[in-house]
Amino acid sequence: MPKDLYRYFRVEARELLDGLAKAMLQIEKTGAGAEIVGHALRLAHTLKGAARVVKEAAIAEQAHAIEELLAPHRDGGAPLPSPKINDVLGRLDAIGGRLSALEPPRPEPSAAPSSSPPAPADDTITSVRVEIADLDSLLHGVSEAMVQLTALRRAVARAGGERDRRDLDAGLDAVEGELGQVAELAGQLRLLPASSLFPVLERAARDAADSLGKRVEFAAAGGDHRLEAHILAGLRGALLHVVRNAVAHGIEPAPQRAAAGKPAAGRVTVDVERRGHKLAFLCRDDGAGIDVEAVRAAATRSGRLAAREAAALAADAVLRLLLEPGVTTAGATTQVAGRGIGLDVVRTTAQRLRGDVTLKSEPGRGTTLEILVPSSLSSVRSLEVHAGDRVAFVPLAAVSATTRIAADAIGRSAAGETLLHGDVAIPFVTLAEALDPGAAAPKRRAWSTLILDAPSGRAAIGVDRLAGIQDVVVLPLPALARAGAAVTGASLDADGNPQLALDPDGLVAAARRRRPAELPAPAPRLPVLIVDDSLTTRMLEQNILETAGYTVELATSAEEALVKARGTAYSLFLVDVEMPGMDGFSFIERTQAESALRSTPAILVTSRSGAEDRLRGERVGARGYIVKGEFDQGRLLTMIRELIG
Question: Per-domain residue ranges for the chain?
Answer without folding.
Answer: 3-101, 124-189, 193-374, 380-512, 528-644
